[in-house]
Design a protein that fits this description.
By secondary structure, the chain is an all-alpha fold. The protein has one domain. Helix content is about 55%, strand content about 0%. The chain is built from 7 helices and no strands. The two termini are about 20 Å apart.
Length: about 180
């Protein structure tokens, strides 16, 4: 197992299922407002509801509220990255091309929770790339990568073929390059 995947697996194992749920629910661009405490800012055992619901369970997220913005941002990122319709559909969980075309015309459609989580990871990846590589960020997903996580293939391969786990692994990889943790 490549080092980055091993480290990510160790972190997930050390923090358990609760951390997995919190990680999936965390998305600075899509959930919570400015000033919401992150999971590291709350004392262990603290009820998140006492802190403005910063660690809401996934099922409590207002999917309709975040869907329109999620679709618009995703389509903008897909355009910046020069993604094919096929790649866009794969990133969103193997949706049909007709569904994607419908969303392009009606950007206020409602995403599923799975799709919203995928968009959350894509936004975080995009943001990290623009922090790390401001001049060449948008081409990075297409370039072959020698890091063992990618096995010489472009990151887009892992992102499109690895499901949510692949998106999460790329997000964690980039956050680690920034010197932080998701």
């Amino acid at each position: 197992m490549p080092k980055i995947q091993r480290i990510a697996a160790e972190k997930r194992a050390a923090h358990g299922a609760e951390a997995e749920e919190r990680f999936a629910a965390m998305s600075q661009p899509l959930a919570g407002g400015a000033g919401d405490p992150g999971p590291d800012e709350l004392p262990k055992g603290t009820d998140p509801e006492a802190h403005g619901g910063a660690l809401r369970p996934l099922e409590d997220i207002d999917v309709k509220r975040f869907s329109g913005a999620g679709i618009r941002v995703f389509l903008g990122i897909a355009k910046a990255w020069g993604l094919s319709t096929e790649a866009q559909c794969q990133l969103l969980g193997d949706i049909a091309g007709a569904t994607l075309r419908k969303w392009e015309g009606d950007q206020d459609a409602t995403l599923t929770l799975d799709q919203l989580e995928r968009v959350s990871h894509i936004i975080a990846i995009y943001r990290s790339l623009h922090t790390l590589l401001p001049a060449s960020a948008d081409g990075w997903v297409h370039r072959p990568n020698t890091n063992p996580l990618f096995g010489g293939a472009p990151a887009l391969n892992l992102m499109t073929q690895g499901g949510i786990s692949g998106l999460r692994d790329v997000r964690i990889f980039l956050k680690a390059q920034e010197g932080g943790w998701c």
